[in-house]
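FIELD: query
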Amino acid sequence: MIGPNGAGKSTVLKCVCGLIPIWGGKIYLNGEQINGSTPAQNVSRGITYTPQGSQVFHDLTVMENLEIGGFQLHRKEAQERIAEVLEFFPILKTLLNRDAGRISGGEQQMVALTRALIQKPKLLMLDEPSLGLAPNLVETIFEKVTQINEETGVSIIIVEQKVRDVLEISDRVYSIKLVRIAFKGNPDELKENRERLKQLFL
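FIELD: result
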């Protein structure tokens, strides 16, 4: 999901996960209407969300942050899931006892992604996962997002400002402008039409 700042992209994600109420319309997941559901109810349904800015609990360790991701699971199952999802980001295994506020921004983003996967989501929503990251880390995060999608089958919605990068890994693109869908279709249509892409952001 792409578009200029203030278009409503992050608001869409927050509405889907239940953080803010919708003004109109309906939201469905696998044919079930979920309007008015709480975030906890939506997590139980298989919706997880990582907000902008590597949102971690800075005063908790990396492991404690991950354990929060499994709050709806039995302890043994949560530990098993943590071990499974750490395979996507093995560097975190060496940081489990570190305070999350004392690791790099890229590592914090990995913690946030790992935490969101612990519930075995059906829908994973990522709000600007590249925000504040160095170019080499942006590439790493997008590679991991692709790997997660391919290996787990989870559907992923990404809100992202690094448009050219995200178009390379997307199956479908929606552009929001002035709180309306200005474009929907195949990413190749925009990759090959720079003028059209420019118009969507002006």
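FIELD: remark
Strands lie at 28-29, 32-33, 47-50, 123-127, 155-159, 173-177, 180-185.
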